[in-house]
Design a protein that fits this description.
Layout: E1 4-15, E2 18-29, E3 33-37, H1 44-52, E4 59-64, H2 73-76, E5 80-83, H3 95-103, H4 112-118, H5 134-145, E6 152-156, H6 164-179, E7 183-187, H7 191-197, E8 200-205, E9 208-214, H8 215-224, H9 237-244, H10 253-256
Parallel strand pairs: 3-7, 3-8, 5-6, 6-7
Antiparallel strand pairs: 1-2, 1-4, 8-9
Helix pairs in contact: 8-9
């Protein structure tokens, strides 16, 4: 059994009267990708922010590399890389300047010039960060999360805003990183991404944990909660998920005409 680098037990977090995370428990093993899935407002980002040490939980136990990330954030951050859902960088800084700045934070930084090439951003190194497209900023954010050669990466909406070719290239890169022994927590709305990369899945709904386990176990879980005539053996993970979660009411033509 691989060593657990993250252990979360009975995590609870509330924002005033809103119980954002309720009794959530899971683990992440060495060299494993855990996908955290669920609709907007399900508690995904709040959960990973507690793992990152950015939020103090109301109750529960969180251990990352043997330490409490809230109390020992400086020590934990030597081993983790974080790509946030939304990141603001200084408006008057160039790509290469920002990379050099982040490299200066670490004793043994990764080769950011090589990372720029791997992320297809080398030709943008002289560009103002504020002038990058949304997809380019996303790739830059992922690049910066790897600067400290982390043993755990936390990726919130990994490939949002990326075109299909770049997304697939990113998938291959992260599969290779995982195979080198790096663990990942990946928050994603893209179930094709989860199917391609994840080893295990944590499914949250309205702050409550609905499922934690392997992809095959999630398939079995989804099928057990869907009427037999509504699913097929050939259904993808995304198709099963969409049949599992409540359907959202669409906009009628009468509303907009």
């Amino acid at each position: 059994m691989e060593e657990a680098v993250v252990e979360v037990e009975n995590l609870n977090l509330a924002y005033r009267s809103i119980r954002a995370v309720q009794d959530v428990s899971f683990s992440v093993r060495e060299g494993e990708i855990l996908a955290v899935i669920g609709s907007n407002g399900s508690g995904k980002t709040s959960t990973v922010e507690c793992v990152e040490g950015l939020r103090k939980p109301d109750s529960g136990r969180i251990i990352v590399f043997g330490k409490d990330p809230w109390k020992c954030r400086r020590e934990v951050y030597k081993k983790i890389g974080v790509q946030l859902q939304e990141t603001e960088y200084p408006s008057k800084i160039k790509v290469e300047e920002l990379c050099g700045l982040f490299a200066s934070f670490y004793d043994r930084p990764a080769d950011w010039k090589l990372l720029l090439a791997q992320m297809d951003l080398e030709h943008k190194r002289k560009r103002w960060v504020s002038k990058l497209s949304g997809g380019e900023k996303q790739r830059l954010s992922v690049l910066l999360s790897m600067m400290g050669r982390p043993k755990l990466m936390v990726l919130d909406e990994l490939t949002t805003g990326l075109d299909p070719e770049v997304r697939r290239n990113m998938w291959r890169s992260f599969a290779d990183i995982r195979d080198s022994g790096v663990s990942m927590i990946m928050v994603s709305h893209y179930l094709d991404e989860v199917e391609a990369l994840a080893d295990r899945i944590l499914f949250l709904d309205k702050g409550k944990q609905q499922f934690f386990g392997s992809k095959q176990a999630f398939r079995d879980y989804a099928k057990s909660r869907i009427a037999r005539e509504e699913w097929k053996e050939s259904d993808s993970l995304e198709e099963l998920y969409l049949k599992l979660v409540p359907r959202q009411q669409g906009i009628s033509m009468e509303t907009i005409l």
